[in-house]
Specification:
By secondary structure, the chain is of the alpha/beta class. It is 23% helix and 18% strand. Strand 6, helix 5 and strand 7 form a beta-alpha-beta unit. The two termini are 39 Å apart. The relative contact order is 0.13.
Length: 258
């Protein structure tokens, strides 16, 4: 049994291992609400592929039992990386109760795919060296009180918010006390997919520039001073900076590490 991170949507952003493992399994379960069918091009030609979007947990566990009885390897395909908002923990618990061994194959998360789409680095020296991944409460998954946005935003770090497109007005209101209105923000919808789109703005202006209903689904919101153009550079490639792999110009070797 394999949990495979399919990546953000583009079929070629699944890992080599994920594609290889999927191609070996004769039962493929995929979350069709988030995983495009194009990803199934990596499945075995004779594999049975089932969309689990309409299934509850017990129905999925029944398929694991069936596969166990028939001696089938199962590829359970999730969007992005299974470790982040993957709803995998309860499936893993059920598999352990059934005595079914499983392996997790990591994938490319939508927050890194969004940064790639924007051509952005989320950590900048002297600006922010921390990335916070979070979301706002939904009907199925409430966020603990200690993790509510105002407290997280107080760090002033790069903030990546999953699954919050339909709550953008509330999110912006909660962030305004921590980030100045000129803080750069970006919305990326369906990162890496053919219908991907993005919008860059600032925290103070973004709601005046978009129609919230058009960004309700599969949208990543990134709020970060790093999205601007701060005139800072890492010392790593500074000619005057020496480390174990390179001499500084006009100096001997340093004992520092990159």
């Amino acid at each position: 049994m394999y949990f495979i991170g399919a990546g953000p949507g583009a079929p070629d952003l699944i890992t080599l291992r994920g594609a290889r493992v999927m191609g070996q399994c004769r039962l493929v379960l995929y979350a069709g609400s988030l995983v495009p069918e194009a990803v199934l091009e990596h499945a075995h030609p004779e594999a049975e592929a089932l969309n689990t979007a309409g299934m509850h947990l017990e129905e999925q566990v029944a398929l694991y039992r069936r596969a166990q009885a028939e001696g089938l390897d199962v590829a359970r395909v999730h969007s992005g990386d299974p470790a982040i908002y993957g709803a995998t923990a309860e499936q893993m618990r059920a598999l352990r109760e059934l005595g079914i061994a499983y392996e997790v194959v990591p994938g490319v998360s939508s927050f890194t795919a969004s940064a790639a789409a924007l051509g952005a680095e989320l950590t900048r020296p002297g600006v922010t060296q921390t990335v916070i991944l979070t979301r706002v409460s939904g009907r199925a998954s409430p966020v603990p009180e200690r993790e509510h946005l105002p407290g997280l935003a107080a760090h002033g770090a790069t903030l990546c918010l999953f699954l919050g497109g339909n709550q953008l007005p509330q999110i912006v209101a909660q962030l305004q006390d921590a980030y100045p209105p000129e803080t750069p923000v970006a919305l990326v919808q369906r990162a890496s997919q053919p219908d991907e789109r993005q919008h860059r703005s600032t925290l103070g202006q973004v709601l005046d520039e978009i129609r919230v209903s058009e960004w309700a689904l599969t949208t990543m919101l990134i709020v970060s001073p790093a999205l601007g153009d701060p005139e800072t550079s890492s010392r790593l490639y500074d000619p005057a900076y020496a480390h174990r792999f390179r001499r500084a110009e006009g100096a001997g070797l340093s004992g520092g590490k990159p």
